[in-house]
Amino acid sequence: MSIFNWIRRDTPPLSAAQQQRLAALQPAAPLGDAPLQQQRLVVLDLETSGLNLQRDQLLAIGAVVIEDGAIDFSQQFECTLHRAGHQASASTLIHGIAPSAIAAGTDPAEALLAFMEFLGDSPLLAFHAGFDQHMLGRALRESLGYRLRHAFLDVAELAPLLCPEVSLRHAGLDDWLAHFQLQAAERHNASADALATAELALILFSKARRQKLDSLAALDQRLQGRRRRQRAPSL
């Protein structure tokens, strides 16, 4: 990785050990043509102080791994980040992370380094991935001066693409879980939501294989085509 990917003048100072870990992070792998069952994917969910992309902070990261066509329970990541001066807000009522847990959390640079080491070069899956991608990317820039280049696939887009017969407009994660009779152990908890998203993704991958979309590259290509059609003006 080029040194210019992580050195920024406005980044908090990192220790020599942290700089070495940062420089050793694996570069992102492209979305490839390998069968879905041969992929390692990291399914991500974040908890934040709110929904403002520029002002609110990343508070917790939860992630699980799909590998060899199944959820690998030996590979899980969960971390609450320390945020000085964090106060309870309306979001606290949703995610349930108390200010005391934030005060006792892990230093953001350490937490984000640990997550990126866990991630490796794997692509990411998330539900409403654009939000998670932006918030994670911003946190990495602010704490590490690191530019996130890993590919994200949005399970909220994959579900209607692969299940066109299902009439769920503007559906959230709860709607799709209910449709497939899946149950989340605890909603609005990063780790539990990541696990629920992973279970949903495995169902969708099974449908993708039946539709001859047996690679991340093929899925991404089909998603891009769907986006173009949605943006095209109607005649």
From TrEMBL:
Entry coiled-coil feature ranges: none
GO biological process, alphabetically ordered: DNA metabolic process
Listed CDD domains: DEDDh (cd06127)
Key words of the record: Exonuclease, Hydrolase, Nuclease
MF annotations from Gene Ontology: 3'-5' exonuclease activity; nucleic acid binding
InterPro entries (alphabetical): Ribonucl_H, RNaseH-like_sf, RNaseH_sf
Database matches in SUPFAM superfamilies: Ribonuclease H-like (SSF53098)
Domain Exonuclease, residue spans: 40-210
Name of the protein this chain belongs to: 3'-5' exonuclease
Organism: Aquipseudomonas campi
Taxonomic lineage of the native organism: Bacteria, Pseudomonadati, Pseudomonadota, Gammaproteobacteria, Pseudomonadales
